[in-house]
Design brief:
The structure is a single chain. The longest helix is centred in the last third of the chain and has 28 residues. The chain is globular, with a radius of gyration of 28 Å. The protein has 20 helices and eleven strands. The protein has a three-stranded antiparallel sheet with strand order 5-11-10, with no helix packed on it. It is mainly α. Helix content is about 55%, strand content about 5%.
Amino acid sequence: MRVQPRQQLLDIWEAAARASWKDGKWIAGGQFGGNSISDAEQLLCLLLPATQVEAFNLDRPDQTAERMVHALRRMGTATDIPRIVTRILNDYFDRYTENDTPVFSGGGYYELHESEEFDKTAPPELQTLPIVDSYALSITLSLATLGFVRVYRRSVNREDVRSAIGELEAAASRRLSAAMVGLLRSFSVNVFAVDSPEGDRLCTTVNQNAMPRRAVVHQLHLRLRQTIASFREVLIGSGQTNDLELPDRLFECGWSWTVVRGAPKIDTVEKIGEQAPGVGQDKPYLYFTVIALNAVENLFSERTRILGLLNEEQQRLARALQLRSDLTRTYWATVATFGESGKWPLENIPWRTTDGEQSDYFTLQVTALAVKGLEQVRSSDTELARVGRVLATLAERARITSRAVENDPNLVMHYPGVRLALGGSDEPADTDEKLPLLAWSVPEFAALLLLRAANVAALIGDPEERSRLLDLGDQVWDHLARRRLQSGEGAGLWDDASRVFPDLARPGQKASWYYTERVVEALVTVAKVLDQPPSRNEDLANYADDLLREAEQIYDRELLNGSAEGGPGLRNTLQRVDITLRRAREIRTERPGTSAALALDILRELDRLDAARGDSSSEA
């Protein structure tokens, strides 16, 4: 790939430190001011690489690479940096805890839905509502924090630092538990009649083969029968319903934007404070569903398991979330790829939701859900390649890989973003007063596209398709690199879409931690993809096998003829051949191309021996 994630992440660390560390203090808040989400995103710009890419570790000061320290040099030495990170993380968890209850409000990210100005933030009294975005990011941040301190503690001797680490671990664990409970109470199963507007839109969306309506409903019930039956196991939190199995009902599942209205409180021994009544509409949103699923996956990551980051009660909550995650992935993979043959619903761009909204952004989110479901059932490369082609089409339609046209409606996805109405926010739980409806804008399209391309590339085995997805990732990165802020406090960070699309408004020169964190997440994923073994190509493997068989036969013949008993030069040559041959055999399964190259080197070496022997015979 042309994008080099190591260098790009180092550049982001330098820019983030420059924007955030001033006069010995961490300055929180970006383009939209400080809130529980933006401040977490700002911290994750440091912690995601540090905890998910081995070369970027900061929790082992004696092993931290000099280049990493140089990128964060404003914050001190290799020994200073983890102490400072511990301090600013403690500040974050303290700042967003009130009366021993973690706070998950959206703050300045909330907008007024009826406002004609996209950047019109909601008044302060409406910014305190909790939101799934904060729950999900808090899970990611808390797990990263717990993993960081578990490793860092081993190299700390100072009592004051060990005390700060203990406080941080307790705070992160408490916020993690509260966030998990929040997600459990925000899960939604929206059941509707087949002949309702929602049912009609769902059937129209999935029916790409002109099937009779009755047949579509029957096939949906048939393919989702196991999923429907599994909902009986949803015993705690929201998402419990008795109407799913009725033949005249359809449904959709996922996460609402906040705790749904009427969601029961969850009994837990974790001290998470008050569980406030829910206000959210009992209806899933694609955006919040995807970020919730990503957070749940972090609960079951290899790092979480190896470091033992979850206590017994958190493991119980995690299992309940995993059940919801599995049901959601299966549902959306079924809907997105419905039909025995022909075009998938996912391929009919743009995706239309059951409330009638349609956008290429929704298609991009459904690709994430479809891939998660396909991964669950170990799908074929052919199916994953179809998703890859959808991503390529989205890149073209979003004018990332094609030229923008005048008054292109798709450019709004880049800035100010697709606006989501937060149903129920205008009807608070504790009063009959009618309030303004809140909205949430999502301008992350290009960063998400890079992340999705990397995700599919990581799963696909076909080298050609994988290469095509990585090439797409390069093109998307070229687009993203041009959108960096060029001056001001946020120089080197994101996002200024007007540098690519001059007709779009210029957002100012403060960093959007929302967007920058998405770019960091995408680059971390690209780094993981590039760290994988090369894709195996059967033709190349067969070619390597043929070369090795010939090389082994010629080598064995040399030994049979007594070449190993010759002079020192001949013995050294045959020893090198033997070592190279053994190496080629060892790697031929995972790296057949390299194995073939080594076999060719062996054949050349053996041929030189044979040629030299022939010359000697001629002279004699």
